[in-house]
Each structure stands twice: as structure tokens, then as C-alpha cells.
Amino acid sequence: MTGCLCPLVSGEVSARVVLHLELAEGVGQLSDDCQLHFSGLCYCKPENSLGMKMNSTTKFAGRCLCGEVTVSVEGEHDPQPGACHCRMCQRWTGGVFLAFTAAADAVTVEGPVRHFQSTPFAERAFCSTCGTHLWMRNTDDQAAEYDLMAGLFDAACDWPLRSEIYTDKAMASIRLEGDHTRKTEAEYEGSNPHVN
After folding, report:
1. Which of 98, 162, 188, 196 has an alpha carbon 20 to 30 Å from 181's alpha carbon atom?
2. Cα–Cα distance measured from residue 87 to residue 107, given in angstroms and rounded to the nearest whole number
3. Average of pLDDT values for 20-34?
4. For residue range 127-168, what is the model confidence (pLDDT) as tens digits?
């Protein structure tokens, strides 16, 4: 079947799944191959503010290094992580922040979690036992999506990269290959003035 938006089927990421683009008109088609790759999940759902929205009954979970914190996702999520190379994310992760979005009502967290208010509008969370980074999340809205660390989840190992921001600030040792949206500091902050 032609017209499936799944990058594993088409061999490329559709413009419908890139960060900060306008909503695309129409709906794509779900091919049989896409159903096989994503167990019925496809990139053909309507978009949310940060990429694709997924309605799924498939539940998957991740955990921190020590195993005391588990994060479960069941519902809307974007199975394409985004990367951030801003200086704050470099300090937090030791290199590059790599996360995918999930709706607040799709996320269940169990275990000892600590929060750090890293900016006036966002917090970062980590396991209070082992220090594993868990997520970043806007604090101005209780319904705000989670930016979950992709490395917590075995399910995320094969997900393609959606986008990359602050590319001009990337450490020389961390250059990400592939055909995905890239924005420099000026480009990203120009379209997101609340970050300044």
C-alpha cells in the first residue's frame, strides 16, 4: 500500500512528524507493514503540539538504573525522540538530551522521584536513589506532556530520531547523523520566545 507515513515503510520521515511544523491536512494510510512494525501504531494519527499523537492500548515501561523507579506509558506518545544540544541539557545529561513526548494522562510513575526546577517554566526529574534522569516537563500546566528520557525504555531502541535543536551548540564529539529537522539556537529561540 502506498501513502503510509511510517518511516520504516517509506524509508524516510514524513514532514508530518517534525517538531514545530503546522498541522498537516488529511490523514495518511496505515499499511500492513506499518502494523507489523508498530503493533497497530502508526504515524497517521493527528498531531499534537510537539509532533505525533499516538492512541495506543499497548503499554510499555522503562526503569531507572537501580530499578526503584518505573515509568509506564499507555496512551498518546510520540515514538520519535527529539534531541537537544543546549548548554543546560548538556550539563544535565553529560552530552545530549534525547527524549520523546507522552501525554500526562498516559504516564504512570512509581518509585522515589526528585524534581529540580531548572527554569522558571520547566522541571527535570530524577531517581532519588541512583540519580537516573527521568524526564523534563513544563510546570505551568498540570496537563503538560512529559519529555521522557528514551534510554529508560527498551521499546524506544529502534525509534528513529524526529528532530534536533541547538545544533550549533552540539559538542564536537556528538554529531547526530540522519535526515531529520535541525534548528540552531537562533532558529529555535526565534520560534519559541518563552525560552529566552
Report:
1. 196
2. 27
3. 30
4. 999 999 999 999 988 899 999 999 999 999 999 999 999 999
Angle (CA) 72 161 133, round 5°: 45
Provide the H-helix boundaries in 51-134: 87-93
The SS3 of residue 154 is: helix
Q: How far apart are CA 142 and CA 154, in angstroms?
A: 27
* CA distances from residue 88 to 2, 70, 92 in whole angstroms, order as listed: 42, 25, 6
CA separation for the pair 186, 181 (Å, rounded): 15
135 DSSP β-pair partners: 125, 148
Give the list of residues 6+ apart from residue 145 with CB closer than 8 angstroms, or none.
48, 49, 50, 101, 102, 103, 104, 137, 138
- pLDDT of res. 110: 98
* Residues paired with residue 109 on neighbouring β-strands, in sequence order: 71
Average pLDDT over residues 96-114: 96
